[in-house]
Every structure is written in C-alpha cells, then in structure tokens.
User: Fold these one by one.
Assistant:
Number 1:
Amino acid sequence: MTTAEKIPNAYNFKTEVKQLLNILVHSLYKEQDIFLRELVSNASDALTRLHFETLTNRDIFDPDAELAIYIEAPEVEDDQPKRIIIKDTGIGMTKDELVTNLGTIAQSGAREFLAKLESDEEIDPTDVIGQFGVGFYSVFMVADEVRVFSRSYKKRAKAAVWVSDGSERFTVETAEKPNRGTEIHVTLKKDAEEFANSWKLKQIVKKYSDFVRYPIYVDGEQANEQESLWRKRPSDVTEEDYKKFYQQMTMDFEPPVAAIHFAADAPVNVRAMLFIPAKREPGILAARKEPGVMLYSHNVLIQEYCTDLLPDWLNFVDGVVDSEDLSLNVSREMVQNNRIVQHLAKTVRGRVLRQIKRLAEKEPEKYAQFWQEFGRVFKEGLATDFTAKEEIMPLLRYPSSKSDGKLVSLDTYLENMAESQEEIFYVLADDVKSAGRSPHLDQFKERDLEVLLWVDPLDAFLAPMLPEYKGKKLRNIDDAGLELPDQPETETDDDQKPELAEADFNRFVGKCVTTLGERVVEVRESKVLKNSPVRLVSPRDAQNREMDRIQRFMDKDYQAPKRILEVNRRHPLIADLAHLVTSEPDNPLVQLGIEQLYESALLQEGLHPNPADMLPRIQQLLEIAAGQAVTEPS
Ligand code: ADP
Ligand code: MG
C-alpha cells in the first residue's frame, strides 16, 4: 500500500476521540488484552442486530452466511509486522456509517471517560473503557494501524474500508469485500506481537467472551463455550460461572448481588437465569443498554430487552428467560399480548420475589445493602403499582428507635410489639439523628415502645397509601389523639422536680397564645412530654399531614401548617419562663423565648419554612444570656 502525501477521503477524528486516542496510543497498560473483548463484543452486537433485522426483513445481503465470529493470526514473513484479523458476519457498516461510527460522531462517552481518568489517578483505563461506548478505540493500545473493511446487510450498499494509525485522522474509501459484515485488520505494535498467537487468542476469548452467543473461531477452531448456561441444572453451575456469565452479558464488573436460576415445565416451560446487579445505575454505556431481560425460545433470542415479564419496579433485574413454549417468530406486539408470555411473567415475577425475600431473611446484611440501592425503586413501585402492595410491603425496611441504626421490617416490628400494642408507630424526620431527638418519642422511650423512623422524603409521600399492615394500623406519633397502652405509673425521678403552680402555668400558656396568635391552633398542656419542653402535634382530624413536609420542598410560597403546641409543665425551662411571665411580664426574654420554642419545634418537625430566619433571634438571646452571665456571675 502506498501512503499518499495528500490524503484523499480523509476525516479528522472528533476532538474528544483524538484526546482519547492520544492516551491509548502513548501509554502502556497492563491489561491490553481487553481490546479483543471489545472487538468481539462489537462483533456480537453486530450479529444480534442482523438477527433482529432478519426477523422482519427478507431482503438482506448474503442471507445464508453463518452468524459467527472469526479470529485469525495469519503467518507473515519474519521482517513483516505481525497481524491479527477479527471478522464477523453481522450487520456491517456502509461507508457513511464507518465515517460516523468510528470517528466523527460526537462522543460524550469519550469525554466522560477522559474526565474519569483525570479525576482518578489510580484508575486503569482498561478496566473502564468498555463502559463508555468507546471500546473500539482500545484496539489502538496494541495497533500501529487498523483497517476496518465492512459491507452492510443493505443490498445496494458498497463495501468500504476505514484506515487509521490512531493519530489525527482516518480515511474511508470504497473497497472490495464479497461477503457481509466487518473485518478488522490489526497491524500489531512491536511490543504487542504476543497477541499474534492462536493459543494466546483462545485464552483471551475464554477469559472474556466464553458465553458470547455466537461461535468464535480462532484459526478455525471454536474457542468459546457458547453454551446456554441457563439450561444447565442449578446444581451444576458454580458461583464463579454465574459471575462470569453475568459479567460477559452486562460488562458490569461488579459481581451481582444474587443470581436467580430456575426451571419449570408447568404451567409453562421456562429456564431462566436472572441477576440482581449491585448498583442501580450501570456504567453509563454498559453492554445492556435498556431495562428488560433477554427472551429466548429454543435457544434463539427473540427479544433483547423484554419488559413484559417483570413489573417496572423490578426492572433492574437482568438476565435470560428461555421458554420452549414460545414460537420463534413472535413479534414485539405479539409478545405483549401473548398468553404464554403472561404465564411466564407470573412465574418469573413470583420466583424473583421469592428470591429477594429469601435474601432478606437469610442474608440481612446483604439485603440492607441491596435496600440502600433499590429500596427507593420499591417505594416508587408502591406509589405506582397498586396491585403490588402485598408483595412490596414485606420487603420494606426502616431504621427504628430501638434498632441502633439497623433496618427492621414491618414483620420484625410486629413480632417485637408489646402485647397490648395495637398499632405500628412511625415518626417523620429528615434523618435518623434528628428523628432520635423528636419530642414525640418521649413517651415511647419511657414505655420502651418501638417507633419506625421514616427519614426518606418518599416515606412521607407514601404514608397515605399505607394505612395498615397485617391488620395493624400505621400511626404517625405526632398525633394529638394518640393514646398509648398501659400508661406507666407516673412520677419517678420527676417527683423531685418542683411542680409549676397552676396559675403560673396558665399565665404562661396565655402568653403563648397571644404571642403565637394565628400560627397555632391551640396551646395546651402536654400529658406525655418528658425531656422536651414543647412539641407540635397534628389536630386529630388533620388530613394527609405527611404531605406538609413535602410541600416545603415543592412549594415556593410554602407556609408552616397550623399545629397544636403542647407544653411540658414539668420542664425547667418552661418553669423559668413561666415565673418570668409572672414577675416581669414585659421582659423581652418572654416573647423571644416563646417564639424560639415554637420555631425550634417547627424545625424539629421538618416544617420550618426557612431556618436561617431564626438567626437574628438566636443572636438576641445570646446577647441577653451573655449580659446576664456578666452581671450575675455564679
Ligand atoms: P459501542 O460498542 O459501545 O457502541 P464502540 O466504540 O465499541 O462503542 O463501537 C462504536 C460503534 O461502531 C458501534 O456502536 C457500532 O455502530 C460500530 N461498530 C463497531 N464495530 C462494529 C462491527 N463489528 N460491526 C458493525 N458495527 C460496528
Ligand atoms: Mg463496543
């Protein structure tokens, strides 16, 4: 081949691709062999795309070619650079597609990949390149020059060849290629010559591409297992197999949380191997690009992303479902309305849920991690799929006032309930710590009753949808009418605390009423507070009060809702303020104190419109306290 001075049909790589290539060409990476994984993965994608084309289109070029991948290391003269060739009989690319797909399309993946390398020095690019949709370029880690010959499945399209040495630009021109698909000729760098070796190539195929669903021939011999792992009996499949299969299917390099492998013959034939991934968000461009599972029949893929088998709130589950009862030429719409698919869906849904439940029971710590990642998906499921309540509620987990940071299920809660307890209690808060400080908990702590801490904003949103569980009502403990079982005999160590005289207390309550005015429904004595001076409770008939907290986030003109202010008569702060009302009713501390108590309670409830508004008052209170500390040193 000649290299012309003036290059015809030359195109510049997009800037971000140029940068990416610059890195790949000039650095030495330990896992260079992943270039083969990426090329094989592209070949496999191209074959799958062709396969789907043939389902609806008979008019394709070279219809009888076997769907397969061929890797060759041709013999070369000693003084010649070594080469390898990767061929597929997939969908191919036209000349224009070569230009766009391999260099001129804007590549957000390349930019993200570069940003990732920049942000994390430790990272090995070979670990992540496949996840950014730029896998093809990894070939330049090992290549001095790459030629991509391709012929599209479209009958009238001519074959073309793409050539580049991985620097500034590439060329694309028409070429001769008698058969369909893509053929990549890689001229190896001197230090990558080890790859031009059948044995080595087979080893790499085995390592990364064993379960690719098309045969991969290395110098004429099939090198991948290509078996349907899901058709084996679960007892014949090892943990390692599951991991490897999952990895090759998804290119997600975090092992799955669980593999769900089962077979059934009635009411419908099914062999399935499904996985719960570790993360909700896969790598931006992981191999599986959409939710849904792969639907097979008789070992043939009929739908790559089938979403009709599992509800939306389980669509993070990935894997294979294979049924011999499905006919091979079902189209997309037919899949949806197919009775067999409906049977399949029922079976698959049941099995997946059973497995998740088992995980929750047998491996609570693993489940807690899973919950961190997917709990919200389930909660969204509750909000959107009314039929799923029975299935989802047992899977819910919350921290509780007695669980020490651990998560408890509603069932565990029921088991631990006091005998006389009739309801499931929960308190809303922004986080576990502030929930722990809630004045509503006073009486529960005293009676050693457990309260669920609903600290996810979604919990407040879901509250109206969860009126009860297994016959027990769920009850927000900010409720004014709440009556707890067996009130303990009152007054223990409190007996010593001076009781505030009736008249003083009433005067203080009156002062609260005049100070707070319209902002509260009522001010009254609390029967339950222990260590907190005041709290805000909801009037008995308050509707959907959980939504108030959510309004705060959503509504610009949000105003704090009206609640009942309950005052703890035995609290020393209240006693001091009440005495002050009696002795010096006009002391500014009285009003400041009442305002601050009220707003602190709002804040505690997550209802304060703007906590920063409290700062000037806090400053004033500090000034008074400091002034007193100076004039009356103790
Ligand atoms: P990704 O595979 O994530 O899309 P790549 O950089 O690996 O990213 O490939 C870029 C694009 O080039 C592919 O999306 C595809 O359109 C095209 N391509 C690469 N290899 C082949 C091939 N063997 N056959 C057909 N098209 C291919
Ligand atoms: Mg790719």
Number 2:
Amino acid sequence: MNPGDLSAALRVVPGTTVDLGAVDPAATYGRRKETAAQELERDLARLRILQERLWAENRRRVLVVLQGIDAAGKGGTIEHVMGAFNPLGCPVHGFKVPTEEELAHDYLWRVHARVPANGEIAIFDRSHYEDVLVVRVLGLVPERRWRPRYEQINAFEQLLAAEGTTILKFFLYIDRDEQRERFQARVADPEKRWKFRMGDLETRRRWDDYIAAYEEVLTRCSTPVAPWFIVPANRKWFRNLAVAQILADTLTNLDPRYPEPAEPIPPDLVID
Ligand code: ADP
C-alpha cells in the first residue's frame, strides 16, 4: 500500500475487526504541517470543480457522514473542507436528540428524508450511527432493539448505493488528552464557551464505552458500498487534508461531466 494514498491507508477494509487502541490519532502519514496548507488548497481547488460538475450533471448523489466523539472536529471539517463547495449543491444536516415527532417513527425516518438528491453532496454532522452509539451507551432503547441495527443500517446504505448514491463515512479520531485540551480551551475562550455543555463531561466519563461502540460500528458497518475511514484527527491540518483528499479522489473516480444543454444551441447563435 502506498502511504501517500490516504483513501487506501485510512479505509476500514470490510470484514476486519477494528481495534482503535492500535490506531495513532496523531498520525500524519508522512505529511508535514509546513506544506499541508498548500496541499489542501490544491485539493480544495479540485473539489470545487468536481462538485460543480456533479451538480451540473444532476444524475448522481454523494453522502458524506461525519462522526466523532465531542470536540473531534466535525464542525471544523465542514468549515474548512466543505466550505469549498457551492452551498446550493451541498446541504449540511445536523442530527440532534430526536424530536417527539422523530421518536414516533423508526430511527431511519429522519435520516432517509435528508439523503442527497441528484447532483448533491449531502453532509451529515452526526447521523443514523447515533442510534448505535449514544443510544447504546446510554441504554436509550433495550439491546434487543439496537442490536439488529447494524444489519439494518447496512441494508439501508445498500439501498441508497444501489439507487445511485456514493457513500463515504469518516470517523474523526482524537484521543482523551486531545479532548481534554480542546474542552479546556473552549471553557477558557469567551468565543468558544458556547460550544461547551456540562453534559459533555458525562460523555467524556463514558469514553471507553463510546470507543467500544465505535469499534463495533467500524467493524460491522464498513462495507464495499459504504466504507468507513478512520481519520487521525489530533492534528487539525492532517484531518482536513485527509478528508479533502479522500473526497477529491472519490469524486475524481466518479468523473462527473457537464451535460449537453437541454436543447441544441446553434453554434452561430448571437445574443442581442
Ligand atoms: P454537536 O455536539 O454535534 O455540536 P449538539 O451539542 O446539539 O451538537 O449535540 C447533539 C446531541 O444529540 C449529541 O449529544 C448527540 O449524541 C445527540 N443525538 C444525536 N442523535 C441522537 C439520537 N438518535 N438519540 C439520542 N441522542 C442523539
């Protein structure tokens, strides 16, 4: 494997058992901070063009799922990577504690309603995976309800893929020390304090439970049509670079094309 190819290096090969203890959240795969900004700019330039073509082509769809423990950088990734896109073709959806109406339906109902349409790249900030993460860790439904969800989620993603959606799922992986530093920085900074909630400490106390829940997600739900990527995210510059590069490589493979105009345009047409 070429360590330069981050898509291959970070992808969870379907069928492998993931042990996050063996993954270094500070890894940079030979990249250097000094040259990262330039490399990122190049990838963002590629992404801008590819997204415009996907939007113009109006035939295929891309779904990007972002997951990670609190402070892993989902918001920062959206700002720094997806900021390259024309917002018209790039809806971003955050999934919070379900509303009463959402809870009165099956857990995929609110998710299915937000999957991308033709030409769109939809970004999920949290996703249906919360239904086997927070729901499992806090025991919000009994195990007999959440246990079958891995298979249900795989089947759901299979359906989306068969209908023309390319799916990419990123797990932004930071370690406990990095989370402490980020939380501490949030608390200290008047412009970041709003991001902090006392409830975040409760989630932090259950770190090991969340890691175990993530390991099961990564092990059971990385499939050929909807792979997971484990992105070492202690270093924000590497996280951005990795997500941008994997997205750009995927879109390059899709090779979206500008369509022909809806009706023929005479080559000598003069607009007066
Ligand atoms: P974020 O932390 O993503 O910036 P919030 O602080 O609003 O945004 O957090 C959203 C909260 O909603 C998280 O604590 C998350 O675990 C919770 N959540 C998301 N989906 C579900 C779900 N299906 N069931 C219960 N809680 C959920």
Number 3:
Amino acid sequence: MENAKSTEVTLSDFIERLPKVELHLHIEGTLEPEMLIALAKRNGVEIPYRSIEAARNAYHFDDLKSFLNVYYLGASVLREDRDYHELTIAYLSRCKAERILHAEIFFDPQTHLANGVALEAVIGGIHAALLDAERDWGISSALILCFERDRDPATAVKLLERACALGNITGIGLDSAELDNPPGKFQTVFAAAKAMGLHRVAHAGEEGPPSYIWQALDMLQVERIDHGVRCLEDPSLVRRLIDDRIPLTVCPFSNIALKVFPQLSKHNLGELLAAGLLATINSDDPAYFGGYLSENMLHTFSNLNLPVRDALLLQRNAVEAAFCSDQRKQELLSALNEYNASHHVLL
Ligand code: ADE
Ligand code: ZN
C-alpha cells in the first residue's frame, strides 16, 4: 500500500511538470458547465439546463452521436467575439498550469455560422487569445479549421477561402459523426487546402472502420490521423502508418466516454506504441470527458501500467507530429531533454 501510494505520487508529479504538446483539442469541447451557464445567460440563449449541476449531469454519452448533440447544444451559447476569446484563454491558462508548451486547436466554424455568428467573431476571438498566450505565457499554437463531415461538402472551399483571408489558419481537419460519412466526400476541399499550403488532418478510425483511415490517407492526403485506434484491425494499414510515420492523436478519456473501449484498462494505447506507431496523447473535449491532458496521461498510465519512459516517448512523438517551425520543435525537444536529464533516476 505504502509502495503503491508513493509510485502514484511520483507518476503524478512527473506528468504534471513534464513539458507537453497537445495536438487534438476542440476549443468548443473546453466549455465547462460554469461558462456554459454564464454565457447562455449573458447572450440570452435558451438551453435545457437550469443549473451548472444539471449541465454536468447531462454529460453522459452512449456513443459519438449522443455526445455531439450535447456538444453542439453547448456551442450554441457562443455568440460574440469576446465569448470565443474567454473560452480560448480559459483553455490556454490550463495549458500554462499543466505545462503544455504548444497546443494545436480545432474549431467548428460551420456550427457557429449556422447559429448566426459571424466568422470574424469566431476567428477574431480565438486568434486574439492565441496571441495573448504566446505573448504572456510563451505558449505557441496553431489553429485548425474543421469541416463537419455530416454537412454538405459543397460550400467547404468557399468557407476555407474566407477563413484564410481572416488570417492564421494553419490547417484543416474533418470531424463530427463518423459512421456513414466517409472521408472521401471531402476530397475537393482537402486538395484545395493542400494547394494553399495548409496542413491536413482527419478524424478516422474512432468509431469508423480501417477503410476510413485508408481513405483519409489516400484520398485526402492527411498528415495525421485523429484517433485512428481501429487501425490495429488491419495489419497492412499499421504497416503503412509506420512506414510513412503518420502520427495518431489518441484521446483515451474520449474513447472511454464514447464507449469505443469499455474501460481505460482495455484501451489499446500500449499496443499502438508496442507496434511502433507514432502515437500521441490528447484530451479531445476535456470539459465533457472528465479531464485535461495531464489527467488523461496519469489515469491512462496507471490503468495500462505503462512505464514512465513512455510519457517521454509520447511527448517526443507529439513534437515530431506538430505543425510548428523546426526552431520551435528544437526548443520543445530541449525542454523535454532537460526535464529527462533531471528525472533520469525514475526511468
Ligand atoms: N467533435 C468534437 N469531438 C469530436 C470527436 N471526438 N469526434 C468527432 N468529432 C468531434
Ligand atoms: Zn476530436
């Protein structure tokens, strides 16, 4: 008992102060119940929760679709430039507290446009917060515009051009309800993004089959796969992901909350690493799934009995997978190496 306790404390401290990178984070998924209720009131938006507690109680899901209903409802309270700024600053202050030095942030503009919010307010609010965090806390970031795969792809290129004219879009992604919405539908906008010099990622193999990962690679030419945990069902796909060093942005708490795996001790992150895949660890929608990055790491490590050195491996993988400059990657690697040198006794 004494031993178990001291191991836990050591792992917790190690992870808490470890320099970290987060690559799979939906900014709308950081909307904590407190802010949800406050913004609904401030903006006069009707929501079906009377209290913070009632909102929190609604955060139980059967699958991805049932989560998305709650998530899009939550996003409907975001209306003004300052709402996006406050939401993003709140997440970045978590980054500061958890020593996340670089964050790549997804947003869902089609949802906000459908709610009658101007694209300028969405991008302006988020982007101003990213600049504030870089200036005040030295946190670097990238902004990734996600297309919702259960919406019509026909208007996607126009939206991308408008967003890029507003500035500072690093890449595009593909999210929302995966089943019956194969990546191939979005080939045109992904080709346009590539021609514009943008980075490209897609959610695939979260609930959907390995064939959706193949499509994301071959038809969308993505550089990273978000989730991708179902790749292990197809050995030739695993070979391809390893050979091309395609990173997977794995989100353990999300996979448990959405019942991709029945419990954390059954998650396949350890197998993904053992297979030699370039896996990273991320929080996805932390306000809805019960924890931010450090907690995802801590609980995943203790449930899977992963060695502490895998925490370093996951973070080195994340630096390799990040869409930042080579100079910034060197800084992030130096921070990791320095941390490792002062903790090597643990490894
Ligand atoms: N949007 C927000 N979180 C998501 C997830 N886990 N999968 C697909 N779309 C999402
Ligand atoms: Zn996601």
Number 4:
Amino acid sequence: MTINDYKFAGKKAIVRVDFNVPLNENGQITDDTRIRGALPTLKHILEEGGALIIMSHMGKPKGKVVAKYSLKQIVDAVSAALGTPVQFAEDCAKAAEQAAALKAGEVLLLENLRYYPEEEGKPVGIDKEDPAYEEAKKAMKASQKEFAKTLASYADCYVNDAFGTAHRKHASTAVIADYFDADNKMLGYLMEKEVEAVDNILKNIKRPFTAIMGGSKVSTKIGIIENLMDKVDNLILCGGMTYTFAKANGGEIGKSICENDKLELALDIIAQAKAKGVNLVLATDCVAADDFCNEANTQICSSKAIPEGWEGVDAGPESRKAFAAAIEGAKTILWNGPAGVFEFDNFAAGSKAIAEAIATATDNGAYSLIGGGDSVACVNKFGMADRVSYISTGGGALLEAIEGKVLPGVAAIKG
Ligand code: AMP
C-alpha cells in the first residue's frame, strides 16, 4: 500500500516517526528538523480524516524510564507544528483506552518507546558472555512480539516514516508490521523519498556516476566503497583516508591521520578500481598544517611528501581541480564525508570545492545525493543545501542502504 492510495477517513493510523530531537538543559528543542521532516505524512493523514497515534524514541534510556528523555517535553512543539492539540500517553504500552477514544483529526503522542527494553529487543542486565544470554535473548524476542502487538492493536493501519531508524529491527520499526496485512501498512513520505534517493544511486543510475567518499577513516567506509565499486564511473576518495593511501603507495605523510593496519586494504581498493575500470581520484596535493587548529601554519605539498611534524588537513589546489573535473561532468553524484577538516575555516577549501562542483553539476541536470552527518553539515556551511537534489536525513540508515544492505524498516513493509 502507498500513503497516497490509502483511505485514512475514519481510520486510526499508528505512525513511527523519528522525534529524537536535540534538547537543551531546559528541555527545549534546539533543532526541530526531524519534527518538520515528518509533517507532510502527519498532516496528510489528518487532512484525509484519519486519527493519529504518533510513536518515537528519544535518546538512549536503555529500557528504563529516564525523565530527561521524555517525549512529554515536545508535546507543545508537535502541537504547534501540526496546528492542533496533541494528547499524551504517559505509558506507550498502556495507551489502549486513549487510542480507542481518538476521533478523526485527533492526535495522540505515545511516551518514549525505548522506556521499554522490548522496543530494541535486547536483553538488559545480562552479559553476552553469560551462558544464560541466549535464553534471555529468546525470552526478550517473545516479549518484543507482544509489545509490538500491543502497539499494533491501537490502530487500523501502520505507517513508518522514521528513516533514521530504518536500519534497526525494532518493535516499532519492523516487528509491528507483522500485525498488519499488506493493504494496511505503508511507508510515509519521508521514507518514500529516502528510498527513492537510494534507488537513484544504486539502481536507476544516469551516467557518468561520481561518488565522493571522504571523512576521517577508510575502515568505516569500506563496505560502501566496495559496493559502489561495481556501480560508479569515478570514485573520489578524500579526507583523512588520503594519507592511508599515500603511505600504502610509499609516501611520506608526516603526522597525518593514518590507519596503519589498512595499508593492504588501500592497495586492494586501488587494484579493484583498476580491474573494474573505475577512475579512482585520490588527492595528489594537500594543505599541510603544523598543528590541528585553524591558526596553524600551513603549506601546500604533495600528499606523498609531507614534512616530518606536519599533517595533511585538506585537499590541495591541484586535487580540488581534479575533484571538480570528475564531478562537473557527472549525471549522478553521491557525497559522503568531507575532504578535509572543514570545521576549521582554513581547512574547508577542499570540501567547499566539492560542494560547489556538485551544485554546478546539479544546475546542469545531474542528480545529487548528499548523506551522512558531516557532508550535510558541509553543504549547509557553504549555503548550498538548496542547490543539490536531495539531502538524506538518515545517517546510519543511509550508509547501510548504500552498502547494499536490506533495511528492516523498509523490508517489513515492502517485503
Ligand atoms: P567521518 O565521521 O569518518 O565521516 O569523518 C568526518 C570527520 O573527518 C570530520 O570531522 C573531519 O574533520 C575529519 N577529517 C577530514 N579530513 C581529515 C584529515 N585530513 N585529518 C583529520 N581529520 C579529518
């Protein structure tokens, strides 16, 4: 079923959203992006004459009631965003009466799902090494099903719009879907957009396809690099991982960040690219700094000849040109991870060059997807957020999807 086809009139919809918004010490929301992200789905259901039961997690209360993670703190903000009063259920697993009393157009927000260990389904208070662990896990899985069944009993249909947790097989993100038939469960608009974005770079690829992977380490990106290797025409590897590649190629890298146990892996990636005809673009020059701070002295040098006591902190001018050339001619672009320590203005030029090239390519008709916290922060910092095709809201979920993994939250609905 799709959200556009479903007839919500007179129906109660239980909607999993990601309202895990950051709060300050006074319990005030400091960034409401996630609430705004769910509004199209929530408003659509209300406008169509449905009643809403909204559920989410907040923080990591680890299966216990922890006041600072109470969703009660955001009731007023959700109410203001929806333009209608929002009722609150103090206990998400004991909300049957409140749910039953809901009329068309009314809204009930459930307390933090993760106050119950059943939400995540991991046994608490028992070590993985404990011989009784497997039994405890089995028991927890059984009570997770009961918990999901209780949540499901509140509503006629289930909508998942929490892309940020789509890579988790939790009670509210996946298990609950078992209690609704295919005609009564669907993705929300945000989820639909995220799934489409991933399809655009993994399935419906317009060529040439350029992927830019940056960030600090190669080890955390290897799954993605390997999955993309079969799909991309150009692969730019930049950021801190540059120096692992430079060292593996016999370079001197000073005190640059380097994963010494990944030198073989770096050589293997280079060989894979060659074998698969992928144009691998590595930074040939860099901005080297004598300290890890914005005011450090800097010099431009070869990425393979960094003086002792200096470290590579950004892509150099020659590399920026090479990156831009591989990006500007592309028709599909994926960017994850900065090209340097962009948080310091003096080391942001490489990431800015990438953002600008992506914006230019997008102006010329390319599809561009930006995902993963830091690259999103980059396009925001450089004011280019509205010049790219799509900015993903789901860090971990997006990365797992790009690695080619099936997301339980999506599979539970789409099969
Ligand atoms: P990740 O979480 O792996 O995507 O890495 C993002 C972080 O990598 C950002 O905070 C950057 O400051 C950092 N980073 C990028 N380039 C470098 C570099 N050359 N040296 C150290 N850190 C870097």
